[in-house]
Design a protein that fits this description.
- The complex is a heterodimer.
- Chain A has 13 helices and six strands.
- Chain A is α+β, with helices and mostly antiparallel strands.
- In chain A, a hairpin with a 2-residue loop joins strand 5 and strand 6.
- The longest helix of chain A is centred in the C-terminal third of the chain and has 18 residues.
- In chain A, 34% of the residues are buried.
- The chains are: A alpha+beta, B alpha+beta.
- Chains A and B meet through helix 3, strand 1, strand 2, strand 3 and helix 6 of A and helix 1, strand 1, strand 2, strand 3 and helix 4 of B.
């Protein structure tokens, strides 16, 4: 059989793209972007985090465009991002001064500043709430606004980290602040062993399911650590850029919602035990991803034969765009390569059977 | 007033409030747009607490604009894609740089209202502060 390259299908492809509208056309109700942004905020957070791009409105738009597919939404945001120039690197965002919305520790009952549960599904009964089928959204909005109005103002005070105390006690290693410019995985190809900055950026952008699964494998025994969450916090972090006309000044450009985690595990230090830490930080409210990131950060500091101790394995296979792009390519026409494989199989069979 | 403080108040303020301040300036001056509002990216730099090193968290979409007000330049950058607001903020910045901005009292008032609102929101969060009660210690028989 001869190999035949084919072309064609343009009209079918155009019709296929038009058909996508069919799946979004089942109702006359529009899906307002504000509704996605405000009522699907955890989904929006996930998409922003995996895209590595913080913009709630655009993440909502991307989700609307692709029927709520997280990997397509990440693709759209990454593609759009690539059309924009980068004007600034922010000043170093100070998460110590985060305006806290939630802060807990699984390691200590009493932590300076207290444990703030914030908003969490952890203590809810996972029972379907059928009342939401006929929810009065304006009434909900009014009621909560009213509740805020009735509050007695409480001073906003930043909290130090739980690890600060352990560092003072000498149980955790202390390092001097290091100001070396970070590696940027959006501009450079990763090389291994990857610098710490590349590791953290890659894990923070990684697919939530991928790193959660890897962290789960570590905890189940395919890894060396089973750490304790020393601190989990989420809240608002202020972002500033330099003021170009005067380097002594800066501009406040907004704040982002961030989840940050530190995990602790015991570690050997020559002749005595100490604690070692792993760190996770992700855009939005996504606690399991931040914990998974911290577990993997910690695990990657250990040596051994588990896949999660291999930074090339962990860092190269969890990017949503690359991972889904590569898997997706399998369904594109491979007529020539498959014919080649088929010919090889047929030829071998003919030879074997005389 | 520092640029950081002014930009924080204006970024948090409503679009109409910012427009009113810019319009007042435009009554006496005719700002020239040096750089029309456009979208770009800002990469967020962070310091991680384990080894105190820097890393990039990801990017945010920002809008920026530059104007000239009678020889004084004004610059504004904010998260998001509100071109009208960022242009108005650049006009206000130019007026500050030229020394003709007179509404600092209004900015202070806005800041008070913004802080008051955030403190009320904070009160909601702080209601979830856990108060632990020690249980009776169990004594082994």
């Amino acid at each position: 059989m001869a190999y035949v390259a084919v072309s064609g299908g343009e009209e079918a492809i155009e019709a296929s793209i038009r058909l996508l509208e069919y799946y979004r056309s089942g109702t006359k109700k529009d899906l307002d972007l504000e509704v996605i942004e405000e009522k699907m905020s955890l989904l929006v957070d996930r998409v922003m985090s995996e895209a590595g791009l913080y913009d709630k409105r655009y993440a909502a738009l991307a989700l609307k465009q692709c029927e709520g597919s997280t990997d397509e939404a990440v693709f759209l945001l990454r593609a759009y991002r690539s059309t924009l120039k980068r004007s600034y690197d922010s000043l170093v965002a100070d998460t110590r001064n985060m305006r806290l919305a939630r802060r807990i520790s699984a390691a200590f009952k009493d932590i300076p500043g207290g444990q703030i549960l914030g908003a969490t599904y952890d203590y809810t009964h996972r029972l379907m709430n059928f009342d939401l089928q006929q929810e009065d959204a304006p009434a909900l909005c009014r009621r909560v606004q009213q509740e805020v109005e009735e509050q007695k103002p409480v001073e906003i005070s930043p909290c130090g980290r739980v690890s600060d105390e352990l560092k003072i006690e000498g149980l955790i290693d202390r390092f001097e602040p290091e100001d070396e410019e970070p590696f940027d995985v959006t501009q450079n190809l990763l090389e291994f062993p990857a610098p710490r900055s590349a590791r953290l950026q890659t894990l923070s952008r990684a697919d939530t399911g991928f790193i959660s699964g890897l962290a789960y494998s570590v905890l189940r025994g395919f890894g060396q650590v089973h750490p304790t969450v020393g601190e989990l916090r989420n809240g608002y972090v202020e972002i500033e850029v330099p003021y170009l006309e005067d380097p002594t000044e800066s501009l406040w450009i907004g704040e982002i919602l961030l989840t940050e985690v530190e995990v602790f595990n015991e570690a050997d230090d020559k002749d005595q035990l100490k604690l070692a830490c792993g760190y996770g930080a992700v855009m939005g409210r996504n606690e399991n991803k931040a914990i998974a990131m911290a577990v993997l950060d910690h695990e990657l500091n250990t040596t051994g034969d588990f896949p999660t101790q291999n930074d090339e394995f962990v860092l190269l296979h969890g990017d949503s765009l690359e991972m889904n792009g590569f898997i997706s390519h399998l369904k594109l026409p491979h007529y020539v390569t498959f014919q080649s494989k088929l010919d090889a199989v047929r030829k071998t069979r003919r030879e074997n059977h005389g | 007033m520092e640029k950081r403080r002014i930009s924080k108040i204006l970024a948090r303020a409503g679009k109409e409030q910012v427009k009113r301040l810019a319009d007042e300036i435009k009554e006496d001056y005719s700002p020239v747009i040096v750089k029309a509002p456009e979208k770009s990216l800002t990469m967020i730099r962070m310091r991680e607490p384990v080894q105190e090193s820097l890393f990039y968290l990801g990017e945010v979409i920002v809008s920026e604009a530059i104007v000239d007000l009678d020889g004084a330049k004004g610059v504004a950058v904010i998260m998001g894609d509100d071109f009208e607001k960022v242009l108005d903020m650049a006009v206000i910045d130019a007026a500050c740089n030229k020394g003709v901005f007179r509404r600092y009292d209004f900015l202070e008032q806005l800041e008070k209202e913004q802080t008051y609102r955030l403190k009320k929101e904070n009160a909601l969060f702080m209601q979830t502060m856990v108060s632990f009660h020690s249980m009776d210690a169990e004594v082994a028989p």
